[in-house]
Design a protein that fits this description.
Elements lengths: L10 H7 L10 H33 L1 E4 L9 E4 L3 H8 L1 H33 L6 H13 L2 H12 L5 H8 L12 H26 L3 H9 L4 H12 L1 H16 L3 H6 L12 H10 L4 H30 L1
Antiparallel strand pairs: 1-2
Helix pairs in contact: 2-14, 3-14, 4-8, 4-11, 5-8, 9-10, 11-14, 13-14
């Protein structure tokens, strides 16, 4: 006959059948500590990012208006979307958007294509002096944008540029600062500045590609070009998507290069691109309300294009 003790489940069985413990919630002290460390970040973010955007949006709905014949004191009046309509009806602003679109069509393929080619070259097994080559490619990005624009303004200016002098010696007369060449000239400055930075990003992504896959492809007879097109390129598409996203956002912020080059040529005006138009409206024409409206329009353009790139990238991943 079984004893009473033998009919009871063992301690091990009881432990195995016992419901799993839920993870302990963060204690009140831990939550307060996390909030204490996060407060400075959110405070700075709110003051440096959110507040200026909100203030610009508020400014864009108002305007300084004078009563009577215009001799009275200017009063701030709510005008709704009038500033936005005036900005979008401005021929110089719309012309700047068109010029910026041409800049994107030239700059993005040249820069991204060049960065991809350099990264694949660095990742190839036949590459020698890889560290030195990485340094030389990245070095232009270490030069501040203002300094880079000044250097290239010197190299573009006839009479002082050694490049122009060499071309003239060979019978080639080329003015990099005239109306026909000024856009490619500014594209060249941006490509020179940013290609090396994106080479490092793509090269890092290429280093994460499993070497076993590449070795199997070589065993199957695939050369470097075939491996790059069929294996490496698809595996680094996420990194390429990030580059495209940042590049589009940065392109819409084009300001430094044309503002410096404008001091050397009349081909670049004070409203050559949308950011220059907003700067001119704010600090030359002293119309902060239209400048705020132009800034919001540029920000919306960046948001729409960023969404489109992200959407396209997610579809490719799927």
């Amino acid at each position: 006959m079984l004893t009473q003790a033998s009919t009871k489940p063992s301690t091990a069985v009881q432990s195995a059948t016992r419901a799993p413990r839920r993870p302990r919630a963060i204690s009140g002290t831990g939550g307060r500590t996390a909030a204490l460390f996060l407060t400075p970040f959110f405070t700075i973010f709110a003051l440096a990012m959110v507040a200026p955007v909100v203030y610009a949006m508020v400014l864009s709905f108002f305007a300084q208006q004078k009563s009577g014949l215009g001799f009275g004191e200017a009063k701030t009046s709510f005008v709704g979307l009038e500033n936005y309509l005036q900005v979008l009806q401005s021929e110089t602003f719309v012309g700047g958007i068109g010029r910026l679109a041409l800049y994107c069509l030239l700059y993005i393929p040249c820069m991204v294509g060049g960065a991809l080619a350099f990264a694949l070259l660095l990742d190839a097994a036949v590459t020698r002096a890889r560290k030195l080559f990485q340094l030389l490619v990245f070095l232009p990005h270490a030069v501040p944008g203002v300094i880079a624009a000044l250097i290239w303004a010197y190299l573009y200016t006839p009479g002082v540029s050694p490049i122009v002098s060499v071309l003239q010696t060979g019978g080639i007369s080329l003015n990099f600062l005239d109306n026909q060449m000024i856009l490619p000239s500014i594209v060249n400055i941006a490509v020179w500045e940013w290609t090396g930075y994106n080479v490092i990003i793509l090269f890092t992504a290429l280093q994460a590609v499993p070497r076993e896959i590449l070795e199997a492809a070589r065993v199957d007879g695939a050369g470097e070009i075939r491996a790059a097109v069929s294996i490496k390129f698809p595996l680094i598409l996420p990194a390429l998507s990030v580059i495209m996203l940042f590049t589009i956002i940065g392109t819409l912020q084009l300001f430094t290069e044309p503002s410096i080059i404008s001091k050397a040529t009349a081909s670049v005006t004070s409203t050559w691109v949308p950011n220059l138009w907003a700067y001119d409206a704010a600090f030359i024409r002293h119309n902060l309300n239209q400048a705020a409206a132009a800034s919001i329009i540029i920000a919306l353009m960046a948001a729409v294009l960023s969404w489109a790139v992200t959407r396209f990238s997610s579809r490719n991943k799927a």
